[in-house]
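Example with several molecule types.
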Amino acid sequence: MKLAESILKKDRRALARLITLVENDSKEAIEALRILHSHTGNAHIIGITGPPGGGKSTVVDRLAKELRSRNKTVGIVAVDPTSPFTGGALLGDRIRMSELSTDKDVFIRSMGTRGALGGVARATADVVKLLDAFGKDMILIETVGTGQAEVDVVKIAHTTIIITMPGLGDDIQTIKAGIMEIGDIFVVNKADREGTDRRVMELEAMLELGQMSSSWKPPVLKTIARDGEGIIELLDAAESHYKWLKDSGLLSERGVERSRDELFQIIGEKIEKAVVDKVDRQEMDDLSRRIANREIDPYTAANELLARIGLEEKK
Amino acid sequence: MKLAESILKKDRRALARLITLVENDSKEAIEALRILHSHTGNAHIIGITGPPGGGKSTVVDRLAKELRSRNKTVGIVAVDPTSPFTGGALLGDRIRMSELSTDKDVFIRSMGTRGALGGVARATADVVKLLDAFGKDMILIETVGTGQAEVDVVKIAHTTIIITMPGLGDDIQTIKAGIMEIGDIFVVNKADREGTDRRVMELEAMLELGQMSSSWKPPVLKTIARDGEGIIELLDAAESHYKWLKDSGLLSERGVERSRDELFQIIGEKIEKAVVDKVDRQEMDDLSRRIANREIDPYTAANELLARIGLEEKK
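Resulting C-alpha cells for the full complex:
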C-alpha cells in the first residue's frame, strides 16, 4: 500500500493526502490505517481545550516552539466541531500564519465536521494515528470550545490541558459543567491580568472538591503565552503526567479501553453498512412512510427488517 | 400495557414515570412507546435555542402563558446536553418556580444527558412523543446553548425559534457557524436595549445571504419577554410556520424522513445489542488488548468478530 509506505518514509505530502482521505471516509484510508496501526503508540497525545478567548492557540503555538527547542517533532490538529463549514479552516489559517509553518518538523492540520461520517472525534482519532505513525513525538489537539463534541475529541488525548483566563465571566461555570473531570493540567493564561490569583484559587478549590482517588493531582499553572511565560513549566507538567501514566500502568490500561471502544465503533459502522446493503431501498421508504402515517410503530418495523437479514430478535 | 393506557387517560403521574423510564432506557418504556406511536403526530413541536443569556427561558415561559390563554395545552422539555449532572435539573427548577407549575395543563420536564444511552436527542424525541400521545397541543423544547448536541435536539421540532439579544458580543458568529440554517423564526429578545435594530439588520442581512429556495422566509421579530411584549406575534409566527409546513406538504415529507432516521437508529441499537450478546466478553477483552499491543489492527479484529456472528464482510 503506497500511501502507508510513504507515511513511514516521512513523506509530508502523502500524510496530507491521507488525512484528506480519512476525512472523506475513503476505503483507501482504512486500508492505510490498517497497515499503519502497528506503527502507532509512540506519540504523546495532548488535548487542549477550554472556553473561547482563553488563548488556546497561542499556548499551542508556544508549546510547539518549546518542543522544537527540545528537538521533538510536533503534530498539531486544530478541531472545530461547531462548524461544518469554514471554522476549521479559519482556525488552521490563523495557525498557519505563524512562524511554525516553515518548520518541516511541525505538521499542522485543521478539521471541521465536514465529511466526518463517524463524527469528528472519530476522524480526529484517525488523523492523530496517522501523525503518530508518521513519527511525531508529540501531537497537540486543540479544540475551540467546551461542548460535548470537544470533550469527545479531547478524550483521545493522554494528557488534557484545560485553558482558562482571569475574568472570563461565568466560564468557571462552563468548566464545572462539562470538562472539569477530564482535565489533567489546568492553566490560567493571560496571568498578567487582574483576577489571576482568584481564578487559580477557584480552580484549586474546585479540584479539591472533585478529587478522585487518583494519585495524580492536577496542577493549576499560570502562563502568559503571548510572552512565552510559564510554557516550560507547562510542558514539564505534561511530560510528568505522561510519565505518571506510564509508571502507574494507566497508559496501557486506557489503551486497552480505547481499543475496545474503537472495535465497537468499527463493528457498528460495518453492520450499519451491511444493513444498508441488504435492505431494499424501496422497502425502507415504504416502511418509513408507514411509520410516519402511524400505521406501524418503528420498533415493530425494525424487527421486520432485522428478521429479513437473519438477525431476529430473541424474545 | 398499563402505563401506556394511563397516558392516554391523561394521568400526569404515569407520564412523569414513563419519562423516567425512557431516560433509563427501560424495556417497559419501549413497549409503551410502541403502543403510543399511533397516538402521536398531533402536537406542534417547537424548538427554542440560541446563545446563553438571550432569555430563552423567559420566552418559553411567556409563550406557554399565551398558549394557555388560547386554551391550548402545553408541554415543556428543557434540555441541557452539556451537563451530565445537575444542569438539566437546575434548568427545570428555575422553570418550576414560575407560576406555570400550578397549571395542570402545563407539563414541565428537564433533561440532562444522564441515562440517555442513545444520546440526548434520542431521549428528547421519545419524551416529546410521550407528551404528544398524552395530548399536548404544543410542545416547547428549550436548550441551553448552540452546540451540536443542541442542534440535534432542536431538529426534532417542526418549528425552530432562534433567540438572540442585542450586544451579545460575537454571538452572531456563533449563530452563523452552527444554527443559522435551522432557524425558522429569529427573535431579538430584550429589545428595549441599545443595539436592537442593528442586531435585527444583521440577522436579516445574514438570512438574505443564506436564502434557500424555500418559500418560507424566516421573520426576525423583536420581543421583551420579561414584559410579555412581542409574544403574541411570536406565537402567531410559529403557527403560521406550522400552517405553511402543512400546506406545502413539507410536514408529512419531513415526518417520513424523521421516521427513516428513527428506524435506522433503532436498527443500529438492536444490532449493537445483538453483537454484545453474541460476543464472548473474554474474547472482546483479549482482542482489545491485542489491538492496544499493536498485534492486530482494529479493522481485522472487527472482521473476525463479525464473521463469528454470521455477518461476514463481502470482499
